């Protein structure tokens, strides 16, 4: 009976060791998977405006300074030929103390207006250039037609 008891105890110990090693391996795998998931969530970029929730406001981080920089670049590009922008900025300042948020809104509105005017001027310029090209094309066609008539008249 003693050898049977020893074999039974050895089998029980072996089963306990196998069970403990598997359980420990599963725990380590689950812990590692949890770490990877946490790292993936941390590394994931913030959602874009398209991905935002239904009632959530749009993110506007540092929008005022970007719009202000864009407006300054456009003014430098224009060569300060328009004095209206300076007058409008002075008008905003004359109305007394304005909160930063309202000032930023006014600057954004002014930048949008300037952008719209620049696009309109560019469209007009394009139309003028296109009409010039069309006129040159007509003159060239007329010249070619006259040459062909002379050739036909000479023959």
From TrEMBL:
Q: Which GO terms describe its molecular function?
A: ubiquitin-like protein ligase binding
Q: Where is the composition biased (Basic and acidic residues)?
A: 47-57, 105-155
Listed Pfam families: DDRGK
**InterPro entries recorded:** DDRGK_dom-contain, DDRGK_domain-containing
Write out the GO biological process terms: cartilage development; negative regulation of IRE1-mediated unfolded protein response; protein K69-linked ufmylation
Hey, what's the signal peptide range on this chain? 1-20
Show the segment(s) annotated as Disordered.
Answer: 41-155
Protein origin, superkingdom:
Eukaryota
Q: Where is the composition biased (Acidic residues)?
A: 78-90
UniProt keyword annotations, A-Z = Signal
* Official protein name in the record: DDRGK domain containing 1
Species for this entry: Gopherus agassizii (Agassiz's desert tortoise)
């Amino acid at each position: 009976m003693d050898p049977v008891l020893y074999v039974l105890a050895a089998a029980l110990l072996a089963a306990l060791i196998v069970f403990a090693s598997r359980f420990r391996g599963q725990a380590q795998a689950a812990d590692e998977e949890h770490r990877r998931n946490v790292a993936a969530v941390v590394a994931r970029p913030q959602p874009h405006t398209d991905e935002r929730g239904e009632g959530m406001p749009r993110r506007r981080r540092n929008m005022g300074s970007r719009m202000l920089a864009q407006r300054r670049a456009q003014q430098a590009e224009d060569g300060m030929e328009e004095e209206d922008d300076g007058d409008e900025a002075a008008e905003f300042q004359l109305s007394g103390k304005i909160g930063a948020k309202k000032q930023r809104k006014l600057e954004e509105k002014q930048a949008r207006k300037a952008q719209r005017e620049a696009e309109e001027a560019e469209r007009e310029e394009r139309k003028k250039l296109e009409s010039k090209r069309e006129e040159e094309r007509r003159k060239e066609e007329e010249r070619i037609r006259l040459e062909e008539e002379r050739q036909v008249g000479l023959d």
